[in-house]
Design goal:
11 strands, eleven-stranded antiparallel β-sheet, mainly beta, 167 residues
């Protein structure tokens, strides 16, 4: 069971999302769904509140290989009634390969129906049992990502940063 909340934007344009999700595991397959209440506020134009759904799953193919897929806003929820503008529908599929215990290699493709597909690759390497280094790359934005993780018995700390070629 999951509850989520996020808010982005400023006083001129902002979006808030509250979600309620549920997932279930059956043997090597996990499936989950979520309902989101989205609210978009645009200065001088007002506020619109809508519902968007998402669904995803993971399948552990063997001890080293996991496949996952996710779709967000498959109902193609409209932003406003007077125009045919819609919230983004995003499809994702990926595979995670762990050739040995300390190394994980991830590959994902993400397709917003409005834009070109984005291919992402990421690596996670545990230098020692509790410290992980991470790096990744996104083809659509030509962006690099770097991170560090620390795992203890009661706390996980993760730090990440990214470099965007246009920024």
């Amino acid at each position: 069971l999951a509850v989520s909340f996020d808010k982005t934007g400023n006083k001129n344009l902002n979006e808030q999302r509250i979600g309620l999700g549920y997932a279930h595991n059956i043997d090597n397959v996990s499936l989950g769904g979520k309902i989101n209440l989205l609210q978009v506020a645009v200065k001088d134009l007002g506020t619109k509140t809508v519902v968007a759904f998402e669904f995803g799953g993971l399948a552990r193919l063997n001890n080293q290989l996991v496949f996952g897929a996710h779709i967000y806003n498959f109902s193609k929820t409209k932003v406003a009634d007077y125009v045919d503008e819609r919230f983004s529908t995003v499809l994702k599929a990926g595979i995670s390969y762990q050739p040995y215990e300390k190394l994980t290699i991830n590959l994902e493709t993400e397709k917003n129906v409005e834009y070109k597909a984005d291919v992402k690759v990421g690596l996670e390497y545990f230098v020692i049992e509790k410290i992980a280094f991470r790096t990744g790359f996104s083809t659509l934005s030509n962006s690099g990502f770097f991170g560090l993780g620390l795992k203890t018995n009661s706390l996980n700390f993760d730090y990440a940063l990214s470099a965007h070629s246009n920024l």
